[in-house]
Amino acid sequence: MDSIGYVALARQSGLKREMQVVAHNIANLSTTGFRREGVIFAEHVKALGRDEADLSMAHAHARSIDMTEGDLVRTGGGFDFAIRGAGFFTLDTPAGERLTRAGSFTPNEAGELVSPDGHRLLDAGGAPVFVPAQAGQIALSDDGTLSADGQPIARLGVVVPLVPETLRREGSALFATAEGVEPAPDARLMQGFLESSNVSPVLEIARMIEVQRAYELGQGFLEREDDRMRTVLQTLGR
Fold it and tell me: Are residues 95 and 160 in the same domain?
């Protein structure tokens, strides 16, 4: 295959990857705290020689995470928390500490607040958040202080990554970062609310149609290029 075919295949591979990302976004329209993803296309240029044009190929291996805030949905739940501004809750998982914007928690048998997957919510000091079994009224102030019957019991750990570009998605609403985190000073918490997905169904479906059409055009080009090469080989073989 000549360079034209390789360029077209590289483009098709990138479009396929982007289609998978768009489909994943659409599948998580209703996922609490979900952040939509995009694909970053990079250009690789190689000089072929003095008398030949440079070869340009597209690569789509990197993903970007859209950190735009989603809408808040009122639930009235005492252990449903939402973050306004930049920041993530910190969870203790078997793989280590992870970040999330999904703030739906429930007390487990030990009285620790856990996510739907059973991951423990951590406070600002890195310890599990414990709610006494006999606690009546649970209240959360906007600075993250959690109180039971008017007495402070913990301050939720809300952090931001030191290098946002290093965020790596694990699952639908969990993120990991290799560069560490720091407290989120401007974050404000709300009780009785959950943050919805920031995916716009209209924009994602429009993007899916655009990518599909681009892929079909590329496929047609490859088919025509294949026919051209077959014709050349048949002609030279006569």
Answer: yes
> Which among 103, 97, 66, 63 is positioned nearest to 83, based on CA atoms?
103
Residues 78 and 163 in one domain: yes
Distance (Å) of CA 132 to CA 114, 139, 146, 150: 14, 13, 12, 13
| Amino acid, res. 83 | I
* Interacting residues of 114 by C-beta distance below 8 A, sequence separation 6+: 105, 106, 107, 108, 120, 121
Enclosing domain of residue 25: 3-67+199-236
Tokens 């990857």 sit on residue: 17
pTM metric for this prediction:
0.79
Residues 162 and 203 in one domain: no
* pLDDT tens profile 14-64: 888 889 999 999 999 999 999 999 887 666 565 666 666 655 656 666 678
